[in-house]
Structure formats: structure tokens, C-alpha cells
């Protein structure tokens, strides 16, 4: 049995958390490769080290003094080292790091140091070798991950040691320039490492006892999901169930390696297993997720349905403006394009003008205050009446549905609502589908 395990920011935010992590690693000999994130929040108003690093970069770029955030970062690492009683000193490295920022180090390089230093500390504490992921995770010059090169190099690098700690979140180009993933990207590092060593399991340790049926910041005490399929998880994480980075799914999925989401603060909880095919059937609905910040373009034209190329002309206008669409429901004489709000704001008149020119519609109007909520579940395929229950739950709360889209996989139903109804709707849908324990 071989496990790759990744600890998130809150799991490595203080010496006390490091102690929990060490106990988890030592409790199971198969937990051999450990991916570390940068120190996260210790309490809700705290600032993540990655955010402090990004502030350093911004200030330095603007020619401002960045000593305040820099010293906060340094103090956080020093406190962890001191509280763990380690003899390690990062003093010289911090002096060198400071100079590099002054000399104009890249944003990626600066942001990557949170993971780098934290992994060094964790390696010393666990007495595991430290592995520099920049030598194994390889990006091209444009910042795109080279998956196969990475798989080979990272595999070779890791296999040199039976156990190791490696920093998450970053890699480098073949010339050694540091590149980072998008935020939350240490999850991807863990997944790449699991694939590279052909692990039996990828454990992802965070601050919740698994993927929850809804965002715990909105729904009170949502239930944890026992089993979820990769496809369901992809739908949920794309729609905002942000416990795992959406790009962390592909590398392990292709090797059939399950992911287990676990809670560092409650290691006895089984957490969520993410698998290709769930053995146990959950309820009808596996989870509910949503996002704010969408807008829609409503286009009306009589006989649209018989006008050849209508949809293509609409999408062409959007493509020329580099706007990608999220949903595209249509009626006989209407077409709605749901897009991220940011794509519309400030360009409303131009977009209407271009579309009008392309399709001579009877009416085009934009709305910019939508949210999307996805109800996801492999059980929905065999359960007639799910949509009716969803619409009923919203109607009872007098919430107006602006768009409905059922994925062709029948794995999800997505509704667009007014943004102001988001929280109320999420709770209402949760109450409808999750029986009280
Ligand atoms: P880490 O720093 O360990 O990577 P993250 O902050 O990235 O942790 O992800 C965990 C957080 O995701 C939880 O604390 C929770 O607030 C949030 N979250 C949002 N939606 C969900 C959900 N459906 N299930 C679990 N957690 C969720
Ligand atoms: N530290 C990085 C972030 O805050 C990466 C991660 O936590 O996964 O986004
Ligand atoms: Mg995360």
C-alpha cells in the first residue's frame, strides 16, 4: 500500500497543526510522500502566507516598501520553527529572498516560497528528505503544465527516496523559472505525485470532514458525502464546492487512484472517498453547489428555429470578444447565453450592437445579477420527479427561476436565479433533498 498525502494551509498553519500532521503521517507507514501547502489561516481574520507574499510582490512592483508583509511572513515561519523546537534556521534564506524581491523576482517565484519554506520545515520535523518539486513539475514557457514530462520526471525524483516531503503549488519551466498553478493548486501537486508513483490512494487533508453536501459557510452543518464519483465531483467543484481544486481530478482519475478527503482536526472521521464508480448509492442528490457573478444575454427573434446558422452567428460574436459561455438554453424563438458577469460589464452596448448586426434580433437584453446553482447526483437518472421537487422547493420560497439547464449526462440540473436569492435558495434545495438526520 502506498499513499500520497497532501496537507492544506490550515493543516499547516501553526506548530500545533504540524503536530497533528506528524501524528497522522506516523500513524500509517504507507503514508510516504507528503505534499505541503503554505501556512493558511489560524483564525478567520488571519491572512494566508500566500496572500502576504502576493502583497509583497505587488508593493515591490509599485516601488513601495514591502517590509511589513515580509516581516509578517518571516515571523510566521520563525514561530513555527521555534514552537516545534527545531534547530533549522531560515535566516540566510530570508535575507536572500528579500534581495530577490528587491531585484524584481517574478510573482510566481515570490508566491511559491510559502510552500517551499513550509515543506522544508515539515521535512525537518518529520525527518523525511525534502524534494524540490521545481525539478519534477515542468511547465512550458506559457505556463501550461507538461503532463507527461512531469509524470516521468516527478516519478523518477520521488522514487529515489522511499519517503519525502515536497512543496505544493509550483513547478518550473525547463529553464528553471518558477511557475505556479492557480490558487488552491497544491491539490494538483498531490494528484500529480500520486499518479507519478502509482499510489494506491491520494489522501487530501483539510479542515472539513470531507466534501459536504453544500457549502458550510451557507448551509448549517451540511452532511458529509461518503462516496462521490469523479464526474460528480467535477460538476460540484466547477460550480464552487471549493474543497478540492478542479484540476486535481484528472491526473489520478486516469490511473484509477481514489482520493480520500480527510479532516486534520478530526482524523478519526472517514471523510469522503472520490472514486470512478461509487459502490454505495447515495440519495438522489449527492451534493449542491453554486456560484454568484453571472450574467445572461437574452435574444428573441421570430422563426429563429428555422434560421440556419443562428446559434453559430451568436457564438461567433462572443468568440470574437473572447467570451466563453457557461450555458446555452434555447426555445423556439429565444436563445439565452449565460456568461460570467465580468465579460459583460462595461461592454453592454457594444455586445448588443455586434449581436444585432450579426442576427437582426427582435429583442436583445442583458441581465447582470445572476447566480447558478447545480444539483448534482448520479441517483437522479433513475429518479423521476427530481426537477419537480427542485422547482417546488424554490417556488415555496417565492424564488424566481431565470433559466433551467439539465446536463445531457442527467447528472445535474442547473438553475440560474437572481443573485439576491442565492443563500435562501441553497438552503431551500438542501432542505428538500437532505432528510434531517
Ligand atoms: P485547504 O487549505 O486545506 O486546501 P480549502 O480552504 O482549499 O482547504 O478547502 C476547504 C474549505 O472548502 C472548507 O473549509 C470549506 O469552507 C470550503 N467548502 C466550500 N464548499 C464546500 C463543500 N461542499 N464541502 C466541503 N468544504 C467546502
Ligand atoms: N498556498 C496556495 C494558495 O493559497 C496553494 C494552496 O493552498 O493549495 O492558493
Ligand atoms: Mg485548498
Give a verbal description of the structure:
It contains 13 helices and 16 strands. It is an alpha/beta fold and 437 residues long. It has two domains: 3-275, Carbamate kinase; 287-433, 2-Layer Sandwich (VC0802-like), CATH 3.30.2130. Helix 1 links the parallel strand 1 (3-7) and strand 2 (31-36). Helix 3 (67-84) packs parallel to helix 5 (107-126) and helix 12 packs across helix 13. It is globular and about 75 Å long. The two termini are 35 Å apart. The model has no long low-confidence stretch (mean pLDDT 95). Residues 8-11, 37, 40, 184, 206-208, 211-212, 214-217, 241-243 line the site of adenosine-5'-diphosphate.
β-strand percent reads: 15-25%
Widest sheet: strand ordering: 4-2-1-7-9-10-8
Mean pLDDT rating: 95
- The global form is globular
Number of helices: 13
The CATH architecture name of the largest domain reads 3-Layer(aba) Sandwich
Element order, helices and strands? Answer: EHEHHHHEHEEEHEEHHEEEHEEHEHEEH
Taking pLDDT < 50 over at least 5 consecutive residues as the criterion, the unreliable ranges are none
Question: How would you classify the helix and strand content by structural class?
Answer: alpha/beta
Largest sheet: 7 strands, mixed
Level of helix content? 25-40%
How many structurally independent domains?
2
- Main CATH class of the largest domain: Alpha Beta
